[in-house]
Amino acid sequence: MSALILQDLVKSYGSVPALNGVSFEVGQGEFFCLLGPSAAGKTTTLRAVAGLEKLDSGTITFAGRDQTGLPVQGRDIAMIFQSFALYPHMSAYDNLAYPLREQKLPRAQIRQRVGEIAEMLRLSHVLARKPDTLSGGEQQRVAIGRALIRRPRLLLLDEPLTNLDAKLRHETRAEFKRLHRELDMTLLYATPDQLEALTMGNRIAVLRAGKVVQVGTPDELYDGPVDRFVGALIGAPAMNLVTATSAGAGALETGFGRLDNGPWSQALGGFGRGESLLLGFRPHDISPLEPGAAAPLTVQAKIHLTEPLGDITVLDLRAGDTTFKMVLPEEKAVAYAVGDEFDVSIALERTHLFAAATGTAIR
Ligand SMILES: Nc1ncnc2c1ncn2[C@@H]1O[C@H](COP(=O)(O)OP(=O)(O)OP(=O)(O)O)[C@@H](O)[C@H]1O
Ligand SMILES: [Mg+2]
Fold first, then answer.
1. How does pLDDT run across 274-313, given as a tens digit for each residue?
2. Is there a domain that residue 360 lies in?
3. The ligand 1 atom nearest the CA atom of 37
4. Domain end: 232, 251, 276, which one?
5. From 73, 227, 318, 363, which residue has the greatest number of CB atoms within 10 Å?
């Protein structure tokens, strides 16, 4: 059952269009990510759901009720903003208690609820301190606690990890997943970071220029991007894209030679010869060809650059005037050096094909 339904949201700021017909549905209890670059409309969408933004048109339904025109307080929704602000003159305890005092809850109950949430967020030992004496991660957790303490049924999070360092981001991602499991709450989480969306989201909506271009599970987006932009956005390092032309009968002419029997061959059969295309393949779908082995798509490549990243190494390869990236586990990568030439195999069945002019996937 869908908890939250957005239908055709349209919003402009003067002559600047922010939302151009945003629609998606979030299931009850789902961790749903809104992934898109800067200015895609993520904050505007969340603010509209929270009731902070008046739409030009469109409807928002939450828990079976039309939210349009409902006051912010009536929505049972909490939002954590991109730049969260704690009350600097209040202790962590008072920051957490604030929303409950607003609701005029009895003192004993406030004490109990703050205690619970502080324990859950591992803040019990810092409750007496003011925000400026807390670490970035502790401040962030106080902000999360303040949003959770009213027990909203829907929590909106706007790039909540942006101001944290890499280690804290990693920890807080795990924290959000745990909270989501424990609290049975619906989460709508906006981020420009594909890794956050892939690791936390049950499903993801990709937003671009105020429009949802694709909705799916992390696997669906990774394996079947609707266009080259989603293909390049999801997964790191980004999908390799090389130019190609249709050669008739479902075949493709590429810098690697003529290819047929790809997963796109049948769809490509409808195209005439000479159509400009882009062949996409992920750096994880390339491997060195074992000596004596054969594969449907092999390329002789030369290592131009190596980039060790800890457990994996990214290799920049050149074949003719084509460049592309390959990822190897670190223990395999140590055998290779800049300048080495060798055959690689690209998993043909995992390649993608896009129309060059529009970027649309051919499949
Ligand atoms: N108050 C405003 N006045 C005028 N234009 C605005 C306002 N708020 C947003 N916009 C414009 O609307 C578009 C969408 O903005 P929005 O803040 O929703 O993007 P975003 O996806 O949250 O981006 P970011 O990742 O940078 O936060 C942008 O072009 C932005 O400049
Ligand atoms: Mg934003």
1. 999 999 999 999 999 988 888 899 999 999 999 999 999 9
2. no
3. 25
4. 232
5. 227
